[in-house]
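Record type: ASSEMBLY
Status: queued
Input:
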Amino acid sequence: MAVLVVADHDNRALRPATLNTLAAADAIAKVGGGDVHVLVAGKDCRAVAEASAQIAGVAKVLLADDAGYEHGLAENLAPLIVGVAPNYSHILGPATTFGKNLMPRVAALLDVMQISDISGVESSDTFIRPIYAGNALATVQSKDAIKVITVRGTAFPPVEASGGSAPIETVSAAGDTGMAQFVRAELSKSERPELTSARIIISGGRGMQSGDNFHLLEKVADKLGAAVGASRAAVDAGFVPNDYQVGQTGKIVAPELYLAVGISGAIQHLAGMKDSKVIVAINKDEEAPIFQIADYGLVGDLFKILPELDEELGKRQQ
Amino acid sequence: MKALVAVKRVVDYNVKVRVKADKTGVETANVKMSMNPFDEIAVEEALRLREAGIVSEVIAVSAGIQQCQETIRTALAMGADRGVLVQTDTELQPLSVAKLLKAVVQKEEPGLVIIGKQAIDDDCNQTGQMLAALLGWPQATFASKIVISEGRAEVTREVDGGLETVAFKLPAVVTTDLRLNEPRYASLPNIMKAKKKPIDAMTPEQLGVDVTPRLVTLKVEEPAKRQGGVKVGSVAELVDKLKNEARVI
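Status: finished
Output:
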């Protein structure tokens, strides 16, 4: 039996988390046997299917092109996936807001328990997943015939986006169920890298004191080619939009370098970033819990440190 | 229109959980338990809709062991009108909870179900979506704003790229995100009043739902601990370490 990965995309390009999800699919296919297929469902999204066909290790791409799939509504996509499900032993989606919204709906229609946010593959029916904000790791075994799974992207290095040449097969699309309508999207526009795939992230917390002060972080971010994130406190206070939030219920990140500025380090925030390779904490409170997990800590006033950091990085780039 | 809110009893968000020595789970004996924070937001939203005259009655439902009644009492103290407890000692997984909620929904016929997007214990993020699927209803997950008029809802959702708004006809299931509202505290008079509010108790068997777990937890372990590092004395030292020691910039 084959493994199906539901692609997360915007009708033009794949979102990076799809490549991490494919790495988990490869791990399952290796222990369980079978091919890895990708489902691209959207509107005028053939380019995404063609890109998917190039990915190393993909044996087949299913393309469902219909206006009803344009905005990724779970009400429309779930019946499509249930329709192809009998051909698969595993159906995977990324643990992005797209996958988290869609996959449980698929699982319930198939009468199976979803395995959420897996961080490891033990065998074809046994997986590791973090619970309690990552303070414990559970090894769970599924007794269901079809395994519906979401994948924690940071736990699986992305597969190569090239090297493959899979055939593209069109699947007949049930289309719009008419159950829900997309009204509008207000997406943050940024030239900086996307948080969950950035190599370097600099995040601000309550200590930033205002949204205006985030420009101090942004200047450093631009010197480092970094993405900008935030703690829940900074988002709740309205300093920055919700899509900046790193944490248990926000985005899970694991960059090479994570700089936490004015963030005390609540367990809910640590849950979202503690797998980063190198962590730097900048905080005026030397007792802040963030220092307990930071590789490098700098105690001091961030309003002095950030401009200094900006200047120091500028000097070294010359 | 009735609104149904589902509330889960979980280890309080301030508790640092400990993995049991025999690796069967985390320590829950003598640990403070509370309502899942996202469910508090769900209760608050239902109460606000009632205060706005859109919802006529707020029913708080919980499923699990007998002590889940305390969680329902918390919802009643916040202002919910009555409670439903589906009592069982069997470990409940989201698919089972969704089936139990479906059975309660079919009895109560609410126009809206509001549930936390995720419970902070198992971090599953499934129940609302599963319930919507089983009922054949539309779903709006990760809601930061709900506008209801003339039997239709327009819900703004927190998505990875920003915000997205969807619309549908009720009934529907909505799951809450952090920015939807700030839940109220129960006042002492309301806590007293809540003691007199009715809680209807039933079992999965009475609802005709099989709650046998589909996932078996083989073991629960502590993740590798991160070691604290060093404090540096200056920005120049920090940049030097990042460049020459960690080699990440």
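Annotation: The CA atoms of residues 106 and 307 of chain A lie 49 Å apart.
Annotation: Chain A touches chain B through 89 residues (CB under 8 Å).
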